[in-house]
Write a structure and sequence with these properties.
By secondary structure, the protein is of the alpha+beta class. The chain is 47% helix and 13% strand. The strands form 2 sheets. A 7-stranded mixed sheet has the order 2-1-5-4-3-8-9. Strands 6-7 form a two-stranded antiparallel sheet.
């Protein structure tokens, strides 16, 4: 199922582009309402995916994406009410576009993960070994000396993950004043993590998890979690589920966000509140 999702998120935008393009063409050739409906059924999700990928400024959304699915549904209705028998195939495109929109919102976005019990509140932080971007070894013993915030991301390719890291970076000073160390752990090759670390002026700590040993030990590996085709950029087919862990000094887990929807993530203010308490 995860492999099907990987293919879906790569190829479904092509159908949306086809629907939007044909809608524009029909609008310019004496079928304005049919064309409008076709374009409107495809454009909202296409715009959303393009926007988050290009600008990497959206860290989270609501679960249902009501504006997107409502607009796509209106487009579908306009198409059905103004269908032309000679354009039957084009009438099917808005229906397919709307179906893709629903699949993205309620099927693709929901990773159906099983929560890792070893990361439950009150549990000790599991023992691990990783290295930082300087090649130094980092272990559980290093983390438990201070309160810590661990953010497991899907990698540089994930726009919501990058936006979330930017949020944490912008509030880093407030977090650091609470004595908290912030660790970013990405499921990606070492060169990508080193590149990511150079983007920020604040001293976030980036860890490299070779062979995803830390992710496997924590129970957060998402098999076939990478969109099809991104392997060409050096990313592994298996990814992390987006996961955030907060620990108090001594290593006890006081918060664990194991979201089942990659678009639904905690606000930075709620994470700071954990340590303020």
């Amino acid at each position: 199922m995860n492999l099907i999702k990987s293919l879906f998120i790569t190829f479904s935008p092509l159908i949306l582009i086809t629907s939007a393009f044909n809608g524009i063409v029909l609008s310019l050739n004496a079928y304005p309402l049919l064309g409008l409906g076709m374009a409107l059924s495809a454009f909202p999700l296409l715009f959303f995916l393009s926007y988050i990928l290009l600008f990497k400024s959206i860290a989270r959304t609501n679960k249902h994406l009501w504006p997107i699915q409502t607009t796509a549904f209106i487009g579908l209705l306009i198409s059905l009410l103004n269908h032309q028998s000679q354009f039957l195939i084009f009438t099917a495109l808005p229906l397919l576009s709307y179906l893709i929109t629903l699949l993205y919102i309620y099927w693709y976005s929901n990773n159906q993960r099983s929560a890792s019990h070893i990361l439950a509140n009150g549990q000790p932080l599991p023992k691990f070994q990783a290295i930082d971007t300087e090649g130094n070894q980092v272990t559980t013993a290093d983390l438990i000396k201070h309160p810590a915030l661990l953010m497991f991301t899907r990698g540089n390719w994930c726009p919501l993950c990058m936006a979330q890291i930017n949020e944490i970076a912008s509030t880093y000073q407030q977090i650091a004043e609470l004595g908290v160390r912030v660790f970013i752990i990405a499921s990606q090759p070492e060169k990508h993590t080193q590149s990511l670390a150079k983007r920020f002026d604040v001293p976030l700590e980036f860890l490299i998890d070779k062979d995803q040993q830390m992710g496997k030990q924590f129970g957060i590996v998402h098999h076939h979690g990478l969109p099809f085709g991104f392997q060409a950029f050096g990313y592994e087919d298996d990814q992390y589920y987006p996961t955030i862990i907060a620990t108090e000094k001594g290593g006890k887990i006081i918060y664990s966000d194991q979201t089942s929807n990659y678009r639904v993530r905690p606000e930075p203010e709620s994470l700071m509140a954990l340590f303020q308490q």
